[in-house]
Design brief:
Metal Binding Protein, Guanine Nucleotide Exchange Factor, Chain A, alpha+beta, 185 residues, six-stranded antiparallel sheet, 2 helices
Length: 185
């Protein structure tokens, strides 16, 4: 008689999220993977395509449309589509495509800026500590003179907080309470 299989390892990850992934909570800034020139942000994100490994933006910065040659794709995901290369204006690296015609299933890419995810990098605004080697440093100490002011204001707020429950809210508006507060203290 064999023992039952062990239970799967427990995980604090949200359902569907794999190890090493994290949920994006803020806007993203996209940049050229080679020279790091800013090319766009997630406010203009219109779609993503896992099969093509692309993101599509409605507007971009620092990109040049190479319109000399119209290219017809022979690739599996976008076969038959015609496009122009999109190049970084700073380093001239090809980082995407500007589709002129597409199969019906890819109509959302047409006349948009489709960027190859392998050729760009991104940064999530408000995400602190990502990519930093070593511990995150604590905030600098508050200078002594400013700390004294903060303590004094904290004391004043405490006094006001203790008085407010004594005041009927229907009788005092905030400006009159602020004006009369000093006579009660």
């Amino acid at each position: 008689m064999s023992a039952p299989p062990p239970p799967p390892p427990s995980s604090d990850l949200p359902l569907g999220q794999e190890e090493g992934e994290y949920e994006i909570q803020g806007p993203l800034v996209f940049s050229c993977g080679k020279c790091k020139a800013i090319i766009g942000d997630s406010f203009s994100l219109t779609s993503t395509n896992e099969n093509l490994k692309t993101i599509t933006l409605s507007g971009v910065n620092n990109l040049t449309l190479e319109d000399d040659d119209l290219i017809t794709s022979r690739g599996v995901g976008d076969k038959g589509s015609t496009y122009h290369h999109l190049k970084c204006s700073d380093c001239r690296e090809t980082i995407g495509k500007y589709y002129v015609s597409t199969p019906r299933i890819l109509d959302g890419l047409r006349e948009q800026y489709t960027l190859l995810t392998d050729m760009i990098s991104s940064y999530e605004l408000g995400r602190v500590g990502m990519g930093i080697a070593g511990p995150v440093l604590p905030p600098p100490p508050i200078p002594q003179a400013e700390q004294a002011m903060v303590n004094e204001l904290d004391d004043e707020v405490s006094k006001v907080s203790s008085i407010l429950p004594l005041c009927p809210s229907w009788r005092y508006s905030l400006p009159s309470l602020r004006f009369n507060m000093w006579s009660w203290i």
